[in-house]
Amino acid sequence: MGIRQRIFQKENLERYLQKDSQFERTLSAVDLIALGIGAVIGTGIFILPGTVAATKAGPGIILSFVIAAIVCAVAAMCYAEFASVLPIAGSAYSYGNIVYGEMVGWIIGWALVLEYVLAVAAVAVGWAAYFNSFIAGFGLKLPKAITGSFDPAHGTYVNLVAILIVCAIAWIIDEGLKTSVRLNNIIVAVKLAIIVIFLLVGSFYVKPSNWTPFAPFGVSGIFQGAAVVFFAYLGFDAVSSSAAEVKNAKRNMPIGIIGTLVVCTIFYILVSGVLTGMVSYKLLNVDDAVTFALQLVHQNFVAGIVSIGALAGMFTMMVTMIYSSSRLLYSIGRDGLLPSFLGKIDKHHAPKYAMLTVTIVISILGGFIPLGQLANLVNIGTLIAFTFVSFGIILLRRNPKLNQIKGFRVPFYPVLPIVSGLLCLFMMTQLSLETWVASLVWFVLGLIIYFSYGIRHSKMGHAESK
């Protein structure tokens, strides 16, 4: 078989279903929506509306969230069809292997590794900062040496809290999916209740004059804001990683994915509107915009409650993303493109080695390495996966065998999948040159790994040679 035929060789759905049958199907539609909300409503709702309003969109941040939601909505329907027809672990990585071929599947998987790992590391650092501020309110303070990334010139050597929270979440998930999902559902409910408290209290301090001018940076600022707040929506795609552990996946996966997006969009728009109505957008370029706004109107007690909500929000985001990244790494190891021990399932129906590897990598990133602009790479990783999934619906429908499987169908086919893919490409053009250069380095590294290791150890390649 020639190299061109080899890298575009497509995976067999039956092999995936057989391998993934070791997972225990325990998740319901409600669990999926809670996992999705846990991932999507995290740092974004407490920070992004303020910083993006101040620097890019002004009160027009409301429209930025709407635009980002529209892009996500059409992509979400494409994800829902794939998850319904192909109820397997690995999300877009596995879908890519089946409809595009192995090399494209690897590129998607490599993009998702970037998305999941950097997202959790960035949020772990944010969680640690909020935690340190929270305990400072009680007169407690950790030694400076263990409160930041490795930077001896500024007296910091390790962000110990970031490492500990990642390890704690990984341990909770490893103890059992049922237990971790139940805990996640409770914390999601608390988080949403706290956001509602902010909306109710903040609405009394809204001044319509703060919404003028609505778009101080112009229409381009609103679109640039949409590209940035796209980070806030990342996570709904992680729901599809759980397909192999979902009861009645054909029904529940679309409900979980689309339901997540609807609920989260409503909350983002409401928070953005109230926040920019309470305080002039010019003052919101701070790390804790929601808390800052409440303190400005002398609601310090509610501000304290919101800080707890921020910790809860970031906690549930990390639960979903660590869970999803371990399932992604399992899927790549299952196919032999990374060491096969990652694709093993233990007696508790969990990918223990994949979880351990993810935990170590995220802990190192969050604990020792200054992330800075690397967080922007999360967006491009997400958008690449969304683009391939959107256009992949056309290939899915053209496959006679897969098209026979009944499940959710994207409406207005083929227009909507094409529009979804084009919107994702447009959103990528709104990202900075630095983000593109850094992502190019990442994908060159990924191709080196694929051609030096993955293609020689691939289970698909071995099956073909027999």
Automatic annotation (TrEMBL):
Membrane topology qualifier: Multi-pass membrane protein
Subcellular location: Membrane
Membrane-crossing segments per the record: 29-48, 60-82, 103-130, 156-173, 185-205, 217-236, 257-281, 301-324, 353-371, 377-396, 408-429, 435-453
Chief place of localization: membrane
Keywords: Membrane, Transmembrane, Transmembrane helix, Transport
Entry keyword Transmembrane helix: yes
Gene3D superfamilies associated with the record: Amino acid/polyamine transporter I
InterPro entries noted in UniProt: AA/rel_permease1
Pfam entry (one): AA_permease_2
A single cellular component GO annotation: membrane
Molecular function per GO: amino acid transmembrane transporter activity
Stated name of the protein: Amino acid transport protein
Organism of provenance: Lactiplantibacillus xiangfangensis
